[in-house]
Write a structure and sequence with these properties.
By secondary structure, the chain is mostly helical. About 70% of the residues lie in helices and about 5% in strands. It folds into 3 domains: about 150 residues, no CATH class; about 40 residues, no CATH class; about 100 residues, Alpha-Beta Plaits (2-Layer Sandwich), CATH 3.30.70.270.
Length: about 350
């Protein structure tokens, strides 16, 4: 069994949080700066619920404080994760909740109640990231947090006497939830298909090229379908490269072990006999010493070709190393193995006789 790690499951929560943290820092800094600047200069002058209570300047100060605290906490998080190269359990969920608290608290501070739906536009991006990187359970929690936050926002505005229609706002929330369900369904399909591709590469890493990507299951062909088809075209070449001995043209030891494990399992299930023939070239070292390694390579090349000619369609011919060859013969008992071995010896003797000059 290979000691290499599987190709799948390579991304940890720490890696994801690190790059997402940098993205959050840039995004919040840019959007927060632009939005608050427009608000401060009066280009956006609609009054928020909080501004009606504590004044426009006070509401801006609160919004700035929220953004600064969020960015500071994000920086502390990035440094800790980068230093420890791991993320504590539940940290990804806590970060997601913090994202929503930021969005909806800033919306309460600087956005007029009639424009609360803007916060749902930003929230859908977080839902999308959560589904793509943290799975279904985290996504369901994410949608629940959005529902609670937006409902709280609407109720606070209504309680403060803002001129909004709760029915319209909850209809906006319903549209958000529908969009989240559709996105979740789409990402679920994408994730499942990506898992299929990764598993194929994991099997290929172990030398198993028996699987192929079934593109007939893709109802909406896209880039993943193209990758799957490319793998199908490449896998035969990969199988030849990984499982075949380039000198003799037979299977190598890895290919023999893989195919023999499959054939033995099949023989056990069907209760069929199976035979293994071990063959080597006598005095092969003398051939290399007296005639050179190029001649020795030619002998091995010819040996492999002869054995493949003798073997039946279902037999496995492999060069195990040096001058050692083996033939795995499924559905073959001791008598059949003896006949196959005799055929091999006779062919080899005939070959040697044909190569000797007449009269020797």
């Amino acid at each position: 069994m290979s000691s290499q790690a599987p190709l799948g499951a390579q991304l940890s929560d720490a890696e994801i949080l690190l790059w997402q943290g940098r993205f959050r820092r840039a995004f919040v800094g840019l959007v927060g700066f632009v939005g608050l600047s427009l608000k401060w200069t009066g280009l956006i002058n609609a009054q928020s619920v909080l501004a009606a209570q504590i004044g426009a300047t006070g509401s801006l100060v609160v919004a700035v404080a929220i953004v600064v605290v969020y960015l500071g906490a994000n920086e502390v998080l990035l440094r800790r994760v980068a230093r420890e190269r791991t993320a504590p359990s539940g940290l990804a969920s806590a970060v997601t909740v913090a994202d929503y608290v930021l969005i909806f608290s800033v919306a309460y501070a600087v956005t007029p109640a009639s424009a609360y739906a803007r916060s749902l536009i930003l929230a859908i991006f977080i839902v999308q990231f959560t589904r793509l990187y943290f799975g279904l359970r985290a996504t369901m929690m994410s949608v629940l947090v959005v529902t609670v936050c937006y409902t709280t926002l609407v109720l606070l505005a209504t309680g403060a006497g803002a001129a909004i229609s709760p029915q319209e706002e909850f209809w906006n929330l319903a549209m958000f939830l529908l969009g989240a369900v559709l996105l979740n369904s789409l990402h679920g399909t994408v994730s499942g298909r990506l898992d299929r591709v990764v598993k194929l590469f994991d099997r290929a890493q172990e030398g198993d090229f028996g699987g192929s990507y079934d593109d007939s299951l893709d109802r909406m062909p896209d880039a993943i379908t193209v990758i799957g088809r490319s793998y199908n075209r490449l896998r035969e070449r990969l199988e030849t490269m990984v499982l075949t001995d380039p000198l003799s043209g037979c299977f190598n030891r890895r290919g023999f072990n893989q195919l023999s494990a499959r054939e033995v399992s099949r023989a056990i299930r069907a209760q069929h006999a199976i035979a293994v023939l071990a063959i080597d070239v006598d005095h092969f070292k003398r051939i290399n010493d007296e005639f050179g390694h190029l001649t020795g390579d030619e002998v091995l090349r010819d040996m492999g070709a002869r054995l493949r000619e003798i073997a039946r369609a279902g037999d496995v011919v492999a060069r195990m190393g040096g001058e050692e060859f083996e033939i795995l013969a499924p559905d073959t008992n001791a008598g059949g193995a003896t006949i196959l071995l005799a055929s091999t010896a006779r062919t080899w003797i005939d070959q040697r006789a044909a190569r000797q000059p007449a009269g020797t």
